[in-house]
Amino acid sequence: MIRMRKEAPEIGWGTFEVLDCGDTGVLGMRYDWRDNAVVIIHNFHDKPVEITFDAGIGGDGDILIDIADATNSRTRAGKHHMVLDPYGYRWYRAGGLDYLLKRSDV
Fold it and tell me: Which 8-state DSSP code applies to residue 59?
């Protein structure tokens, strides 16, 4: 968890937007900083939940690369669809792993 947080400076430095995941027990947020974005999804239910959401990123948001493991997400009809375990979470980097090359100076 500490490694994931250190790999996402957007959380501490960027702006954020709450995402509509269609379930009040699921928190989805997108953090933007220096032309990069991180999306985090947390399930606060004690049961699995199936969600669909729009990351609101555009072209780079078509693929979300999981920071923790290999459960990447690709859009279907412009939306991401996934099942989260009870109290599960996913942290994604939008677009790909070349984010350091695309980072702006401001």
Answer: G
What is the token pair recorded at 74?
A: 């690709």
Q: Could you tell me the pTM of the whole model? A: 0.83
When pLDDT is averaged across residues 8-29 and rounded to a whole number, the result is 94
* Distance separating alpha carbons of residues 52 and 21, to the nearest angstrom: 6
Which stretches within 1-106 are classed as H helix? 2-6, 10-13, 99-102
pLDDT (mean) for 28-55: 94
Spell out the domains of the chain, with CATH numbers in brackets: 2-99 (2.60.40.1180)
Q: DSSP state, 81? A: E
Tell me which DSSP letter residue 76 carries: B
Strand partners, 27: 42
